[in-house]
Description:
Layout: E1 22-28, H1 40-45, H2 56-67, E2 75-77, H3 80-88, H4 92-103, E3 107-109, H5 124-142, E4 150-153, H6 161-169, E5 174-177, H7 182-191, E6 195-199, E7 210-215, H8 248-263, E8 270-275, H9 284-300, E9 308-312, H10 315-324, E10 328-332, H11 355-379, H12 381-384, E11 385-386, E12 389-390, H13 394-403, H14 415-444, E13 471-472, H15 475-481, E14 489-490, E15 501-503, E16 518-521, E17 526-528, E18 532-536, E19 543-548, E20 553-565, E21 591-592, E22 598-603, E23 607-615, E24 618-625, E25 631-637, E26 648-656, E27 663-667, E28 673-677, E29 697-699, E30 702-706, E31 711-716, E32 720-723, E33 729-737, E34 763-772, H16 777-789, E35 808-810, E36 820-829, E37 832-839, E38 866-872, E39 889-890, E40 904-911
Helix pairs in contact: 5-13, 11-13, 11-14, 13-14
Amino acid sequence: QPNLPSLPPPPASCHATKPNMLNVHLVPHTHDDVGWLKTVDQYFYGDRNDIQHAGVQYILDSVVDQLLKNPDRRFIYVETAFFYRWWKRQSSSTQQTVKQLVNEGRLEFVNGGWCMSDEATTHYSAVIDQMTIGLRFLNETFGACGRPRVAWHIDPFGHAREHASMFAQMGYDGFFFGRLDYQDRMHRMVQKEQELLWRASDSLTPPTADLFTGILPNGYNPPEGFCWDQSCDDPPIRDDPDLEDYNVDDVVMRFLTIATSQATVYKTNHIIMTMGSDFQYENANLWYKNLDKLIHYVNAQQANGSKVNVLYSTPSCYLQELHRANLTWALKTDDFFPYADSAHDFWTGYFTSRPALKRYERISNSNLQVTCNQLEVLGGPASRQGPFGEGESQTMKKAMAVAQHHDAVSGTEKQHVANDYARRLANGWQRCQVLVSNSLAALSGSSAKRIYCDNLNISVCPLTESSKKVVPVSRATREVRRNRGFAVNELVFQVQAPPLGYSTYSVSLRLAGPPPASAQPGAPTVIQNKFLRVTFDPDTGLLSSLSNLETKQSIKLTQNFYWYNASDGNNLESNQPSGAYIFRPNSSTPFVISRTAKTETIQTSVVQEVRQRFAPWVSQVVRLHGDSRALELEWTVGPLPIDDGLGKEVITRLDTSIKTSEIFYTDSNGREVLQRKKDFRPTWNLMQSEPIAGNYYPINSRAFIKDDVDQLTVVTDRSQGGGSIHNGSLEIMLHRRLLYDDVRGVAEPLNETSQIFPEGLVVRGRLLLSLDPPSVAADTHRPLAQEVVLQPLLTFANGDLSPNTRLEFSGLQAALPPAVHLLTLTQWDKDSVLLRLEHQFQSWESKVNSQPVTVNLQKLFSTLDVLGVSELNLSANQWKEEMMRFSWTPQKGTGHPHLSVAGLHGLKLDFV
């Protein structure tokens, strides 16, 4: 049995407040990026201080020392990736001391995930995993008192509804963040709506996904003039009247002015102040000595009639006071994207920044979920210790957890740090490969060496080099591969694999096989299979229409590639350039790369391809598989030319005959879908100052446009930014190469090169298009998106298999219903596994699949005998029936009735 806390920790650790006064909650904290300007390990050790002075090990040393000197002091800590590193290096006596500080509420963990995840570019499955790994460590180390009650995302650049939904389902009582669109903040300050109730799902019955949300007053910094870190220049409190520059009266007066001003834009007689910032408290004595004095001298004024009471506090103590106030709170049902910090500074570039890293993170997630985690369970102990050595999944889990950080997969780090994130993922996958090989050996009975061909996209697999004609390799692929293999063909054949299982195919040369692929220059006027018909304009070589043959619907569809000229910051309205974070095009009209495409057509019995070449640095394969309901667009972009001195942001745009009324839809972290409207925000009257960047939203797995008759859905293979700037159109940004830094701290332009591509990064990806009536579109795009996120793993082996080899295996007794997705299957401890099942349809999107579903867990698995089932919260650190959250009352009615669908269920299975 996992050691789960039974009851929430008692609130006795909170300092008393005064009901007839303004209570100012001072929250000492440090914000420790799990990689940004330095790597995660450089930050931990305090290495490379020539880049940035920051050493997390010294912060924790210093804070613990200072907390022991005064029991009134408080501190919160957030990033478990760092705390775990520090904890492992402490003596048992220090560990006991820290446990006592936690038990007494003097050191409080908030958020508690391995990192503070990005919210725009992360997939929900990876976010759940990184939260689980951090919270599990805290739970197993500190018990109930170590369980965070508050989610804390003070730095991410915009906030996703699905994140709030996940936090609610993880048992958090509330959520605090720092960054908010400047117009939204002004509106909320006037309305006193900086604290609100976020209804984070339109499918889950309230209050399941309701989350109290607070917007912090100064981002996450202290009020101006009150930073006492060694990195700050603000004067200390000089309280000896016999010495020069006595300043207590001035400090108290300034503090009272700031506090009373802040109180005018919040709703209760409690306000919060974040006393700390990036990597602060390395010398915690400076902070605490001055905070002790501040509290003493401000509260001393109460004897003179002051109505301000200052106290050391934590986010959970502050939240408890807001809950006790028993007020009603403004209700929010949309999200906090896009985020702008001024009129021309929209943080919508990072939705696409570092597209290769974004894809590698997504592939790594697939490898972890589909193969490493699941095969560790299905192969049993033999997967961890077998013929190929010792295999383990923990390295990969931690690498993936680090990659969710808001300066990791977001693409907003320095280049050497991006390299480090990728290296960690590669190392994790190497460890997983041993586990996968062992597991497949145990399940199949064959110990033949398996080859993984990790670089199949840019090289050739040593097992498959052949000159026999199958499908000729495209010119673009040859150019991408450069000198890493000279295969001239690609082998294409149809396969089927059972759910949660594998299939084995034998490939050999035959004297008389199927007819070879036919290749001819030029585009056909049409390619089609039994589901889709695709036409091309013979004059331009571009797409011209898409038809669904089953539903007899057809739309005009043209698609092309364009680039926005990135602002270099030297114009009259603003000095803001485009950069890793910011998207700011010089013009609202992008440049077309070419109005025509040179084309070549490949026809086989299983796939049809039209290869389009737009420029030496842009090409595409339009691909239709024989049995597919989706049209595949495989794009290759790069190296982006910069000889002209112009930064470029490359998009593909789909222009259709669909009447969209300036509305389109995007997913939230790969899960629920939200409506977006051009130049519009649901909760305030928008003054639009950037007509392109201000209409970009994050796309994690899909976006679509629709009218009453037709819905065109685009499924992406990584997180990207996009928008619907014109009626009937959908554009997606694929790649960015910029020549200026956008002055948000990275101090590096986003200009990616590598040893292989010294002249600029080349990126390849896929978009999958489906055309359906809106009422049934989700029945196509939900499973399609899951197939892209969780793709099957290819392994190769030499020669003939032994006759006793098991060629096919399924870990399930029967396939799950279409509405149910097996999200997590991972080894928890020796005799139990963690299973997460999710209903993947929203309540409104499918007549057939938006219904509650029952699954018999006893008869689910073919290789596991289930002895017992216990339901957990989403992060697996609390029993579901013991999850007690604060209840909050919205100002408005509760809205329409909800079906109990789109839910995520975490289960612990005990088995033989």
